[in-house]
Design goal:
The protein contains 17 helices and twelve strands. The chain is α+β, with helices and mostly antiparallel strands. The chain binds thymidine-5'-triphosphate and magnesium ion.
Length: about 400
């Protein structure tokens, strides 16, 4: 038995760090009178959508992705403001740099969220919970922002733990506790279970993660598909061996629409393409990333499907860049085949953290993402027809 204790598998220690009500807290740094008040950030016009809400506003049921009009009904007393995305990106960079002082392995997953591998750092730094508090204090001291940290043996468990740490706290789940911690939680708490999967599971009378773990294989596979079912069952038990850094398969952001009747009008298709492009552009800016290019997808009445893609002169996230490139692809595709279309889609490709390189496009102020935000704001205020680009 000699030396056995040293042979114990080192439990992985993963931190998931996520800033609380990120956009709101950045605004509060600039304007302390917003502290303690219900604040909602997002599109403030009639078609606007909530980016985020302060915890004071969340008490009234306001949340991200909700139409602002609904938020106004739930919480009319809140302060509504549109965001300053370039400021959030700057703060995000500073936040990631603070995290890099505590672990060589920091993997950002969105503007205000990152995984840190803290395995084996106990001798250097002390207990994970204590280190987490040191990190939270550093973020608070240097940026004035509250952060929450979930700690677990995997990314999955750490991420779910963060929800229990919020706001402004730390929550740790050890490997041997993970299954019991997950069991009573609603299926939607498992990252990757969206409304559709939850519905399929509800049809099987499954509402908790423990019930997924215990479900018979056949029905679960029929509900979720064979590959996903086994994967989800493992995850429902808190088992996740995914590496911190997923293989550089850069995800894309896409949006598509199927028409109720096939469309051949170029004007109509251009209009829909513009709306889809605006949607993916907004999501891209939210992610804090830039895209290398754009692709469009066309499905004709006979179900043949084509995609066309083009690389940008330099990585970017501006509305004009995305829309004009997508538009050019559509025009070319329609010139080649003018048949009626049943589905139109747009995707941004090659997403990355890369800083915008200087290029002719970037020197043109109308190609810059802050201009897109300004345009979004004017559209929000005066309606989408109030402003159009020279090329429209
Ligand atoms: P989140 O971390 O999901 O939300 P949050 O930081 O506002 O609040 P908390 O983490 O305490 O729950 O997202 C980070 C920022 O990303 C958020 O402040 C605004 C932006 N965002 C959107 O613009 N739209 C969205 O649908 C979501 C979820 C976030
Ligand atoms: Mg957050």
């Amino acid at each position: 038995m000699l030396g056995d204790s040293r042979k114990h598998d080192q439990e992985r220690v993963i931190f998931h760090v996520d800033l609380d009500a990120f956009y709101v807290e950045v605004e509060r740094q600039a304007d302390p009178s917003l502290r303690g008040e219900p604040v909602v950030i997002g599109g403030i016009g009639p078609r606007g959508v909530v980016s985020t809400a302060s915890y004071e506003a969340r008490k009234f049921g306001v949340h991200s992705a909700m139409p602002t009009a609904v938020a106004r009904r739930l919480c009319p007393q809140a302060i509504y403001m549109r965001g300053n995305h370039s400021l959030y990106r700057d703060v995000s960079k500073k936040f990631m740099n603070i995290l890099r002082q505590y672990s060589p392995e920091v993997v950002p997953v969105s503007v205000d969220e990152a995984y840190l591998d803290m395995s084996g750092t106990e001798r250097l730094y002390g207990q994970p919970i204590e280190v987490a508090d040191v990190i939270r204090k550093a973020v608070r001291d240097e940026l004035g922002l509250p952060a929450s940290i979930g700690i677990g043996p995997s990314k999955l468990v750490a991420k779910v733990s963060t929800e229990h740490a919020k706001p402004d706290g730390v929550f740790q789940v050890r490997e041997q506790e993970a299954e019991a911690f997950f069991a009573p939680q609603p299926v939607r708490n498992l990252p990757g279970i969206g409304p559709k999967a939850a519905e399929s599971l509800a049809a099987l009378n499954i509402s908790t993660l423990g019930e997924i773990a215990a479900a018979p294989t056949g029905p679960l596979r029929r509900a979720l598909g064979p590959n996903l079912a086994d994967h989800v069952r493992r995850r429902a038990r808190g088992i996740d061996s995914a590496p911190l850094r997923e293989h550089a398969k850069s995800k894309s952001i896409s949006s598509e629409t199927t028409f109720s009747t096939n469309v051949s009008s170029r004007a109509k298709l251009e209009k829909v393409l513009k709306r889809l492009s605006e949607g993916v552009g907004a999501r891209l800016r939210k992610s804090g990333k830039r895209a290398r290019g754009v692709s469009i997808k066309l499905r004709y009445g006979d179900f043949t499907t084509i995609t066309r893609q083009r690389t940008f002169p330099a990585p970017g996230d501006g509305d004009q860049l995305i829309q004009e490139t997508a538009h050019a692809l559509l025009v070319t595709a329609m010139r080649q085949r003018g048949d009626a279309i049943r589905l139109l889609g747009v995707a941004l490709t090659g997403l990355g953290e890369q800083a915008a390189q200087l290029s002719l496009l970037d020197q043109n102020p109308m190609a810059d993402s802050d201009t897109s935000e300004a345009v979004d704001a004017i559209r929000e205020r005066y309606g989408s027809e109030a402003i159009s680009r020279g090329s429209d």
